[in-house]
């Protein structure tokens, strides 16, 4: 999902098609907790939100940066009522520390807003080269890096196609033995996907380069006519252009400015990003000659080969670009609250355990299975998994790890994916489903779809996957402000951003109501969400509308305020 999230941030504003892509509550009060970590709550849940009027004014910059914490009733913004939960329910209550495992691309543990919320393995003596706690990982002070020095990687279907090509190229189903039939089918599916994506990516590079060429020519001509590089839409409209091609250029630029709502140089920059993305796809993710795993030194098809990786959870690259995704996810969950800098994460009382297992490409099932087990064995009570793929060679390893987490009372919060797909029809990995995509293997796995900041028909982010059986709840995922490497902050979007928002809610429940089990926390998040009965646009296609209640099992928007109220009742 990392690759899709990165691409969407280049293309969504440009409107360029991307890959596959209550009524007023009564006053709340807190009763004295008498020393208990669980606040006693007397409050009215938020309900009847279908009566809330639509927001008619555009969000301000401050509202955009904080919209996931907004309250739908007070702000008419479909956030998770985080600020309201803190001001009316949490107040000065002290909760229990909760470790949240972030399995991702890595996290900038030096970031100003994250360095004080890191999990530290107190049983490990840093830098002595000894596995002091005998957990199998040397000097794992803040987590573990299962990728070692690896960064770039193929997509899974590319790896499958490359591995099986010598065995099955040119063969038909009738010439393959019954024992090899399943493997042959996998090969043909991978081959078909590879050829399709290779062709589409090559076409996209060509198409966007042509668009850029036309855009640059138009911008240069108009800039010359107006005598300035940075012109407003009003100045462009007022420009006299009767002759061709200037008249044509003016019409083109006006259309782009209306879609993008920013200046043309910025639009060209966004387009450059899209071109770079597709070129990188060709050079790395779809490159049959790339062996990104070689530097790791293990056998990714041998689960017992576990002596690999290192403790550098920020990865090998000094510029930290490849840990942007994991850093952003970590900030959404737990960026230090009320420190006067940056932004506030959803949860307090959290320690982030960084587990690096997601490369620039598709993750390996072995790494994810071991990463889940590592997080469980070292005390995580919530694990966030903002990644995924549609081909898997060892899904059983990951499913067994999910079951292992369930046995140890650990909740896994998972991103649904960014291809506008119905997951009841298309299986994504990781998941908690049987191979037939019908029965859940455990009750500790919560899958999250992404919301847009517009309350109304555009409520669902146009990229978000959905599914009545296989997506559990929705949460803010479009234009999310959070931490990025080198003490910076940035807007990113994707279900990768919605998942950690819900992981933060789960962490808060486990902090203030520590006796609740992982299945109870999952059920509370689903049951306490805000129900929406209205029809919404799916996949950004105005002709494709569905009832929001049919897009997930709960049919609801995750809401911290309501979740804490319900948790208080369940915990009694």
Automatic annotation (TrEMBL):
A GO term for molecular function: serine-type endopeptidase activity
InterPro entries named among the record's database cross-references: Pept_S8_subtilisin_bacteroid, Peptidase_S8/S53_dom, Peptidase_S8/S53_dom_sf, Peptidase_S8/S53_subtilisin, Peptidase_S8_His-AS, Peptidase_S8_Ser-AS, Peptidase_S8_subtilisin-rel, Protease_P7-like_dom
Protease as UniProt keyword: yes
Pfam families: Peptidase_S8
Biological process per Gene Ontology, one example term: proteolysis
Gene3D superfamilies referenced in this protein's UniProt entry, alphabetically: Peptidase S8/S53 domain (3.40.50.200)
Residue numbers annotated as active site: 104 (charge relay system), 325 (charge relay system), 496 (charge relay system)
Coiled coil: 191-218
Keywords, ordered alphabetically: Coiled coil, Hydrolase, Protease, Serine protease, Signal
Signal peptide positions (record): 1-24
Domain Peptidase S8/S53, residue spans: 95-528
Family, as annotated: Belongs to the peptidase S8 family.
Protein's name according to its UniProt entry: Subtilase family protein
Organism: Zunongwangia mangrovi
